[in-house]
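Here is a protein:
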Amino acid sequence: MPTSKEEARREEGTVRYVGWRGSQETTIQLKAYTNKILAKTVDFARLLNYLNATFGEGAWEIDLIRGVYCIVAPRKLSKDEIAQCRGE
C-alpha cells in the first residue's frame, strides 16, 4: 500500500490494449492500478469471483509474487471489498 502521494502516483499506470475494429487495428490506453494483497489473508476462489463480477472477465490481471497477490485492475480495491474475499 502506498505511503505517500508520490508512491500512489507511481503505482497508477496505463495498460495498452490492442484490438481490431473491422479491418483496422485499434489501440486504447486504459487506466490501471496495482492492488497488493497478502495471499494468506484472502480466499483465492472468492477473490477471482469478486474480480470477475466487479470488473468483468479479462479486465484485470493477477500474479502471485512471494506470497502477495498483485492485481492490476481499473481501480483500487477498497478495504471492504478485500474483506469480502476473506475465507472466513
About this structure: Residues 1-11 have pLDDT under 50 and may be disordered. The two ends are 23 Å apart (CA to CA). The first strand starts at residue 12 and ends at 21. Residues 5-83 form one domain.
